[in-house]
C-alpha cells in the first residue's frame, strides 16, 4: 500500500492540527480535491485502487513509536505538542471520505470534525500522485520504466551539483504532496543526505526514518478556516442583516487571531507567517510592528518571488526593522536555478530558506499531476483564498470580491 | 553468489567442449588469466571473495533441467550434443584452480583434462568482472551508484534507438565475458527483447531464462589447443630433431583437422570459422574452395573490420563464390555506431551479423577491466595465437616467429 504510516504527511498538518485541536476541535469542515489541470483523472486511475488505498489509510493509527517521536521532538520547543493532543492522536481514526465520479473527474470530499479531517490532505494527495504515475508506468516495458528513472536520477544529480555550489543555501524537502511515489521521495531525500545545504524535510515519517529535522508551520487552510468560523459566528449572532463593516472587521480579527494564537502555541520557533491567503498586500497592511519584530519571518507561496522579496525587505525597512534579522521561506514552484538565483539576489539583505517540492521529488518526463485538497468550508461557511497569483483564488464570487476589497490598493 | 548455474557461460564452451570430449577428452591443458591493462587487480579485488566465488563454482553441477535444455536444443541440429557428452556433463565437477598473488596481480591457472577445464574460462571472467565493479560501487554512496546505473541505462536506450533504425540488422549479445554483473547483463538483454534486430545471446543460461536463441561456434583455443597437440605428437614421435617443414605441415594439418571435424560434428549449422588465430592471411591462404563453398561464413575478431570485410568479399569472389550467399560475424569491440556503419557498408554485398559484447553489457563510466583467460598449453606444449592486431599475440617468441612464417605474405 502507498501509505503505511499516519506520519507519512507534512508536519504542518500536525502543527496546524494542534492549533485546531485547541480551538476548533469539533467544528465541522469539508475538504475537496481539485485537479487544476482537469486531466479527467477518473479515466486514468482505477477507482478500485483508489478506494483500496483510501480505505487502508482509515485502518491506520499512530503507533506508540510515532507518538513517542512526536513527544520527543524538541527542535522547536520542548513538548511542542501537549499530552492532551498526543492522547487524542493516539486514538485518532481518519473520518470517512466521499468519492464519486463526474464527467471523468473524481469528486473526493473529506468531511468531519476539523481536528480529524485535517490529516487527509497530503495523505490523499500522495495516494493520487502515486496511483497516477503507477498507471503511466504500467503502460511501459520494464526497460522503458528504468529509462524514466534514469532520467530522473540524472536530473536529481544535476540539482545536487547546482545546490552544492552554494555553501550558505538552506533547502528543505517539501515534496510529499506532489511526489512521484513514496519510495522515490525517500530516494531523493537520501541523495541529499550529508549536504550542509540540506536542512530538513516536511515529511514527518521521512524525518523519523532518516533522522532529519521535520519542518513545517501553517498553510492557507488555517486562515481560511478561522475566517469562515468568525464569519459564521457573526452571521449566526446577527441573524440576516450583517453590515459590510462588521464582516470586514471579523476577517481582520480572524487573521490576527491566527497570528496571536500561533505565537501563543509555538512562540518564536514556528513563527513564519504565510502571506498570500488574502494577498500579500493585505498581509503587509495588517502585519503589526510588534508582530513583524518578533516573528522570524514570512513564507512566499505565489506570484513573482523576486518582487515579493523586494516588497518584504521594504516592509521591514519601512518599519525600521533590519531585514537581515528576518527570514523569507520561498516555497512556490522552485527549481535549482530559481533557488540559487533567489539566494544570490537576497544574500546579505534578508535571510532565505527554500521549501523545494515537486521539482525535487518528482522531476520525471511525465505530464505532471497538479492537484490540491483544499478546505472548502468550516462551520457551514464557505472558505476564501485569494493568493497573489490570478487563477488560484478559491471561494464564491461574492466572497472573492469581498476579500479583494480588504486590501486598500 | 555471482555464478549460480554452470549454464551461465558462453555456448561456444559447450560446442567446443563436445569437440574436445570427442577427440581430446583426457589431454592435459592449462588456462591462465591475463590482465591486459595490468591494473594490479589483487590490490582492488578482495582475494577472499574471489576464492569464495571460485569455490562456489566447484560445488555447482549441471542440473537435470539444464541437461534437458541442452538435449532439447535443436535450432542448429537436432541432438546436437550426443548422449555420451550429456551424460559426461551431468557428472562434471570443475577441476581445481591455482590462485596466487604476484606483484599486485592475480596468478590464476586452471589445469586439468581439456574436457573439464574448458568450462572455467567465461565463468572465471564473469566472477572477476563482477567483483571488480562491485568493489568500485562499494566505494560510492547508494545515490552515486544509482547515478552510474542511470548513465548506463540511458546509454543503453541510445544504443537501442540506433539499432532500431536499421530493420535488417542482426545483433547477438556476446557480453558474458566482460559483463558489469549477472543482473545487469540480464537487464541489458531484457531491454532488447522484442526487437526484430535482436537475434540471440551467447549466454546459455540467459537464453534458457529468457527463451532466446543461444549462439556460439568456436574460439581461438580450439585451433591453439589442436596445433599444440599435433606439434607435441610430432616431437614425441621423432625424438629431438624435427624438421621445420614437418612442424609447419603439422600446424596446417591441425588447422584443417579443426575445420573438418567441426563440420563432421555440427555440419552447416555452426560452420562459422574464426579467421584470426594465425592471422587471417593464413586463414584465407588455407581455406579451401570446398570449405569456402560449404561453410556459412567467417568470424572477425581483430584488426580493422572494414578491411576484413573487403578482404573476405574478395576472397569469395576470387573463388567464384557469391559473397551474398555468405556471412561475416563481426565480434571485436563493437558499438552501435560501428555496427550500423559495418552493416551499411556491406549491405547487399555479404551477409552480416554482430556479436556485441562489452559495449552492450557494460557501458558504464568506470575504468573497464580487460582480462582474458586463455589456453596456454595443451599436451605439455605451449599454445600460440597471432590474431590480426599487434600486441594480441600469445606464445613463446620462437613459436610466434614460426607461426608468422606460415602465411606467405
Structure in a nutshell:
The structure is a homodimer of 409-residue chains. Chain A has 409 residues and is α/β, with parallel strands linked by helices. Helix content of chain A is 49%, strand content 14%.
Strand and helix layout:
Two copies of one chain form a homodimer.
Chain A (H helix, E strand, L loop, with lengths): L10 H13 L4 E8 L11 H13 L4 H9 L10 H9 L5 E6 L2 E9 H4 L2 H19 L3 H23 L6 E3 L8 H11 L5 E4 L2 H7 L9 H18 L6 H23 L5 E3 L5 H7 L2 H6 L2 E4 L4 H14 L8 E4 L5 H11 L4 E6 L1 H4 L9 E8 L2 E2 L14 H8 L5
Parallel strand pairs in A: 4-5, 4-9, 6-7, 7-8, 8-9
Antiparallel strand pairs in A: 1-3, 1-10, 2-3, 10-11
Number of strands of chain A: 11
Helix amount of chain A, in percent? 40-55%
Order of helices and strands of chain A: HEHHHEEHHHEHEHHHEHHEHEHEHEEH
| First and last CA, distance of chain A | 49 Å
Tally of helical runs of chain A:
17
* Unreliable residue stretches of chain A: none
